[in-house]
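Comment thread on ticket #2218

A.B. wrote:
> Attaching the input chain for the structure job we discussed in standup.
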Amino acid sequence: MSQTALRRAQVYHFLSQAFLYPDENWVEDLPLLVEILEEAGLLAGWDIQPTALNYPLEALQAEHRLAFGLTGSLCYETEFGLPHEFRQSQEMADIAGFYRAFGFQVGGLVRERPDHLAVELEFMYVLALKEAYAGESGTAEQVEICQDGQAKFLEDHLGQWMGLFAQSLARSSAERADQPAHAAPYTVLAQLADEVVRADAGRLGVELKPHQLAGIRPTPQAPDLACGDCLAAQSQQ
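C.D. wrote:
> Ran it. Output below, let me know if you need it in another format.
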């Protein structure tokens, strides 16, 4: 059990780092990741061959800028179709509550919002690592607490929007004329992450309810963040 948890932790850590701006080439480590996925039983239906990707680091960095720049796919959970900004604040507080409960602190060298995809994946890495440690030197109750935390976080947060994120990224990649969507490295990575999350949810006994991208709109800004409501804009009307 602890070995499986350790393998899962390795997978989540890889994914969390890969979605950040690359300073190392994660594509080169995909064959090793596939081996770990097979050991952890998380390979699921992913059938894209790692050898299909051939990106040097500089090209991978350019792909990251294209995928996640100002016109790219959204990387934040609460930007996906919440009805209003108050619900966004509630969801952000709920995510932060998960982090506090397990001693997970956001910050350090990488400063991102709590609802950023890389942060949520890193949280799953920490919980899986805690589970592995509890399986070796802790109690059955501690293992269960870690497993319950992972299951609940997938059900309430990461598993709710990982598929939407992958769909959104695939759609934005398909709109690019210079390469097929399936060859874009971050499209492949998002598809893999979606497969991992769904397979892990099933392993933990969580039934995820898939959502479709159609009809999803970005969460509206709070009125006080809109340019039309600021005093400078009103003084020029």
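A.B. wrote:
> Thanks. Noting for the ticket: Residues 2-235 form a domain with the TorD-like fold (CATH 1.10.3480.10).
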